[in-house]
Amino acid sequence: MAKTTPVQQIAGAELVGYDYFAKELDVQLRTIYAYASETNAQRLESFPRPVTPAGHRQPLFDKADADKFIAERRAGSTTGKGRVKARPLTKAQRAAVPAAAQILGREIDLRDRVAVRAAIYDDLGLPVIATSEKAQVPAIDTATIKKLYKQTGHPFLQQLLTYRGVDVEPAS
Q: With a cut of 50, which residues of the chain have pLDDT below it?
């Protein structure tokens, strides 16, 4: 297969491909495919539209639009890569971490999906109300946790939802 150059010239316009985005943002090519995909949930609305016709084998983008997108991604980055930095945790979110650990009786990383799943369904023995589609394990997405909290009113779930940035009322 012929190797493409990152920047191509067509009728005086500079055009770039996916490889240009990946190189400039220092991310994997598959990340760029996800950003550009019309069907992927990770699609970024700010990702430029290709100037080539739909269905073109290798979509090409105007370099000026690409550079604008790259600059926006870098502006929100702490690593200099194309990843946007996370927002700092609020006071309530920071307070939810030790509160969840106290309820559970041990430390827990609320970002660790495996640890959260084990805490909810193994340690606390809460009922499984949904399973993930791919892995067929108990679901721990925020929507499922909200439903489970409504059913059980468990304080650990309240702290987890608070940590995830969801406003919840204490169970009565």
A: 1-2, 6-7, 9, 80
- Out of 18, 43, 75, pick the residue that ends a domain: 75
The rounded distance, in Å, linking the Cα atoms of 29 and 134 is: 23
Q: Distance of CA 48 to CAs 84, 99, 114, 117, 152, Å?
A: 17, 43, 35, 37, 45
> What is the SS3 assignment for 44?
coil
Q: Do 110 and 63 lie in a common domain?
A: no
Residues of the domain holding 135? 91-163
Say if strands 7-10 and 13-16 run parallel, antiparallel, or are unpaired. Answer: antiparallel
pTM, two decimals, is 0.53
Q: Are residues 62 and 97 in the same domain?
A: no
Nearest of 140, 130, 151 to residue 108 by alpha carbon:
140
